[in-house]
Amino acid sequence: MAKLNLDKFKSSASSALSKQKTQGIFKEHHDQHENIVLDKLTSRIKISLFPNDIQALKHSIESLGQIEPIIVRNVGDTFEILNGNRRIEVAKALGFVDILADIIEVSDEDALFLPYLLNSHKGFDVIEIAQYLNLLKVVHNIDDAKILKKTGLEVKAYKDLFYQDNGDGLKSFNAHFNALLKKYFKLKNGAFDITKSGIDLKIGIDAAKANDKTKAEVYKFIYKLSSL
Prior knowledge:
Blueprint: E1 2-3, H1 19-27, E2 33-37, E3 41-42, H2 55-64, E4 70-75, E5 78-83, H3 85-93, E6 98-105, H4 108-117, H5 126-138, H6 144-151, H7 170-184, E7 186-188, E8 191-196, E9 199-204, H8 212-226
Parallel strand pairs: 1-6, 3-5, 4-6
Antiparallel strand pairs: 2-6, 4-5, 7-8, 8-9
Helix pairs in contact: 2-3, 7-8
């Protein structure tokens, strides 16, 4: 297995590696490809909270096969996913039994940072970053100083967005953000009254009719508008 030096990837958010550089680092390890049974894959960190469109990737893999391996590390008789969740999702959708992977050596702690470092060039949603930081702190007991050193992210800038995931999908997210938006925006006749940079919007959310995905997208939109 290839030994990974985490310092090669990123010491701060301002020096995030481009996709090309990331692939360049792993080029020397391409002889480490192995096919891994999908049932053997596990995950401690998944930053993407919201559904991704996988149709283009699915078409590519159907037509050309899997060009880019996922990245994992060996943990006992399983393999922890460090990069490649969308490719795994497609592989399962296509009925694959296994998937091509690069197996690397990295410490338990450093493995917590790689899902962010290897994908930061894609631009995560601010809410996804907040929940990732929350997970590092609450579940894995990583302190703010170490998070800043490894990722360049200041925890205090995101704390207002932290929420407790009760394992009920987007319901936990929506409950937190409904309360957060009520705190920051006026609520008139059941509608949020949002005024920002010459824009005046009134958005009403019918909790009984709107599904969790729709409400989550609306809450994300309102939050992004507030941060312009």
